[in-house]
Records
---
Amino acid sequence: MVVIFLLIGIGMDGVFLLLSSWSRSESVSRDLVTRMSVTYSDAAVSLTITQLTNILSFIVGAAVPGFPCVEIFCVYAASGLIFCYLWTITVFGAFLALSGHWEHSNRHSLLMTKVQSKSVAEANSSSWLYKLFFVGGIDPADPSNAKDNKEEKMMAFFRNVIAPILNHNPFKALILLFFVLYLGMSVLGIYHMKEGLQLSNLAMEDSHVIPHYEINNRYFRDFTYRLQVVLPEEIDYQDERIQEQLVQMLSTLESSKYISNNTNFRQFWLTEFLEVAKENFILFDITTKESFMTNLKIFMEEIHNFTISADVKFNEEGTKVTSSRLFLQTERIEDSQVELKMLLSLRELASKLPFKVILFHPLFFIFDQFAEVFYQTVTCVCLCVAIMSVIILLFIPSKICVIWVVFAVISVEVGVLGMMSYFGINLD
């Protein structure tokens, strides 16, 4: 849906360039072929630069490895803009030529009926309503009549009024002052910009999920996430040295400021089994590997109705534990910024453990985005600036022009990113 609005907006930009050139071409000649030639030669470079930079920018977004949803969006946007460019210079050009025929024969642009020129309508004292809706073109008896050949008022206004005002030194100084303030605010906004996806933005505006996330963020940020710690490989859990390492692993993870060290929140089948075996050492002999596995299976069958019964995976013969898991509880997690720090910190701790450990929560795939978005943004912006510089240099071979274009693009990017923080929008 967003691509549709982009295509309409960018397509209108190309249409405006052609219509603006078409309007100016009338001062050169009234011959249709000449006007079309002047229009295309005048607008072609601007139109091509605009569309080509847009297309290549989206191609960069599709080519840079990252999020599949962004890649898909960029592929469709780039494809649509290619067709938009081709249709503008071909199909729209054809309609522009037809429009030129109607214009030269003094026909109404919508009704196709013959209309009077402004000078003829005034001479005939036509009604104001007729003059407003049914007057146009050039008087064939007086093609040079100024009343019939006025340029667009808005274009004349900007050329004759705005441009001279902007050329006065006090206004130049004022503009530079505002620009410096704009850049300063933008840089300050980037410094305070937050990363992280707000989950409520993934739902429709009238979704019942949004109040849930809002209330959850407001009142339930303590002990927010129940984390699975998965041991996906075969381990000799009967070995006392391994048991000590696993207990040390628990202590290491619970030493993190993001994990609660309250043992009541811990759920680890091994510690519970060892406690039962210690209390019932006569019934639960775990001195050998075979007896350890036998009694572990009995223990798991006895507690079948409890949660930890699903935390151990045996091989087909039941002689080994091929994988297992335990659960830990997080402390207070304020926002998405802390979620990102938590994810990176816990993964760093896990990488230093003597076992292969996978930390999992259903929302971790979203937290993963937080770690990548900033670098993806910087990479894409740099590539887009480089591509635009090359295109400008090819079409307008002026080093000074390239420098100013690059500066303008960077200032726009800084402004967009900087102002996001003032509107409470995260980089996501």
Note: DSSP finds 15 helices and five strands in the chain.
---
Amino acid sequence: MEEKICQKYNICFHEMKLLPFYKKNLLKNILTFYYIFKEKRRIQKKFKNHNLKAIVSSGGFVSIPLVLSFKKCKKILL
């Protein structure tokens, strides 16, 4: 649904593969952190040549890779 809205208004959309955090399964949480940092690297490569000045992020753990990658680039977070 979000992808269609972003296409309609010409907004850049990036789909991410992430897993939720689990309270009882430590091994799945390790896999969750793996996906977070994998997506962080993917975002940095994708937007390396774009001249972005700010990002808007909402959400819980899903927004972690985006926020981490733009914080490393010293961009403005909204």
Note: The longest helix spans residues 26-46.
